[in-house]
Design a protein that fits this description.
single chain, 4-stranded antiparallel beta sheet, 51% strand, globular
């Protein structure tokens, strides 16, 4: 099982980035996919999740209306489109895969597999 995140970088406040996470995970469509982030000195926090078929999504309040999670079950890839970025969005972003008995989950414990993280830095 492998999750490979990419797309991070340095961007000015107000800018956009698109993160991708390519999964080598068997039947990708069986997994709920999530994005979490961890800023220096802080705990890892939930950002967004997408249901197995892509129809259901959930977002942390801090990113709602600015970030969009989506998935392509043919390409085994999940995306996180990040717009109107703020300095407080600076963090390492991790994709995750799990099979909770729900359409989506905000719980760290629901995810069994994690990518290596991609760093997003937003300058003011």
């Amino acid at each position: 099982v492998q999750l490979q995140a990419s797309g991070g970088g340095l961007v000015q406040a107000g800018g956009s980035l698109r993160l991708s996470c390519a999964a080598s995970i068997g039947t990708f469509s069986m997994y709920v996919m999530g994005w979490f982030r961890q800023a220096p000195g802080k705990e890892r926090e939930f950002v967004a999740a997408v249901s197995r078929n892509g129809a259901g999504t959930d977002y942390a309040d801090s990113v709602k209306g600015r970030f969009t999670i989506s998935r392509d079950n043919y390409r085994n890839t999940v995306y996180l489109q990040m717009n109107s970025l703020k300095p407080e969005d600076t963090a390492a972003y991790y994709c995750a895969a799990g099979r909770p008995p729900y359409s989506t989950s905000r719980s760290y414990a629901s995810y069994n597999y994690w990518g290596q993280g991609t760093l997003v830095t937003v300058s003011s």
